[in-house]
Amino acid sequence: MREYFPANLQLLCRHYRSIAEVCRQLGINRAQFNKYLSGQSLPTPYNLKRICDFFGVEEYEIGLPTEQFARLIGAKAKPSSDAAEMSAPQQMLEHLRQRSSNELQVHVGYYHEYYHSMSMPGHILCSLVHLREEGGHYTYERTERLQTRAARGEDYERYRYLGVAYYLQNRLFFVDYESLTSNEICQTVLIPSYKSRITRLNGLKIGVSSADHRAPACSRVVWEFLGTQINRVSAYRKVRLYLPDDPELDDDLRERLAQTQMVDGLFQIA
User: Fold this and answer.
1) CA–CA separation, 39 vs 34, rounded Å?
2) Is the separation of the CB atoms in 116 and 241 below 8 Å?
3) What is the rounded average pLDDT for all residues in the chain?
4) Distance CA 25, CA 11 (A)
5) How much is the CA Rg of the chain, to the nearest whole Å?
6) Which of 58, 85, 143, 200 has the least CB density, counted as fewest CB within 10 Å?
7) With bands split at pLDDT 50, 70 and 90, how would you rate the model's confidence at 266?
8) Are residues 14 and 137 in the same domain?
9) Confidence class of residue 147 from pLDDT cuts 50, 70 and 90?
């Protein structure tokens, strides 16, 4: 932990405007936080959990070798300026990036994503999404937690998805993979907001169940915009499974998701 923690913490802080902002949102003294960044001291177990919850990482992950940790959170190496050096898959992705509209910029920020769980039928899953722009590329991180209201402590499964986003012909396309196991890919297509203030975006999500049968599945999906700067700890508390009649889900959200039905174990769009 002591060997890699400072560099990994610095890497996480780069996703924010300043160290002062991180300290303010975490509620940790700046001088003490600087000691963590420099490696002079390690946080207490309590502060370590607060830091990991804030950044959406596990405690064991933040102590991984920095190269491995950078790959885990989706940090990118500097791209080559010579297109001829790119592999065929890289050229395809670069082609899409160049065709993608810059209107994607207005959608950068944090979202709560709601859709019918592919692994826990009869539940609606809320995940936390962070869409950001990095050197002309739009990438995002999506965190899921398969935990019901009744579950306690560490009784849950957690998944982190890393992906790329494109704005093509008036539609938002998101393609991601599960970064901890690398055994699934999801695609989400959303209808962009043309209003001056983004509230909720509607669309479809296709993927596979994480259960043993790994059935292909499709669901209506709703992204609720939270803002460009948020309290991640507070936002993460909502990341879990909900029953459709849960009072925390409003009528508008239920109506937007209502056209999804389950037929023969698969989700069908009415």
Assistant:
1) 8
2) no
3) 85
4) 17
5) 19
6) 85
7) very low
8) no
9) confident
- Number of independent structural domains in the chain: 2
Q: In this structure, what token pair is assigned to residue 92?
A: 């395809």
Question: From CA 21, how far away is CA 219, in angstroms rounded?
Answer: 37
Q: Find where tokens 């990095």 sit.
A: 134
Give the predicted TM-score (pTM) of the model.
0.65
- Residue 80 inside a domain? The answer is no
The secondary structure element, H or E, covering residue 166 is strand 157-168
What pLDDT band is residue 267 in, cutting at 50, 70 and 90?
very low
- CATH number of the domain encompassing residue 44: 1.10.260.40
In a domain, 15, yes or no: yes
Q: What pLDDT score was predicted for residue 94?
A: 84
Determine, yes or no, domain membership for 217.
yes
Structure confidence by residue, pLDDT tens digits, 2-24: 889 999 999 999 888 788 889 98
Instruction: Report the amino acid identity of residue 241.
Output: L
Task: Say which residue the tokens 């539609």 belong to.
Answer: 171
Judge if 170 and 231 occupy the same domain: yes
| Residue 263: CATH number of its domain | 2.40.128
Boundaries of domain holding 9: 5-73
For residues 48, 157, 240 and 196, what is the CA-based torsion angle, rounded to 10 degrees? 80
Instruction: Tell me the Ramachandran region of residue 227: left when phi exceeds 0, alpha when psi lies from -120 to 50, beta otherwise.
Output: left
Residue 88 lies in a domain: no
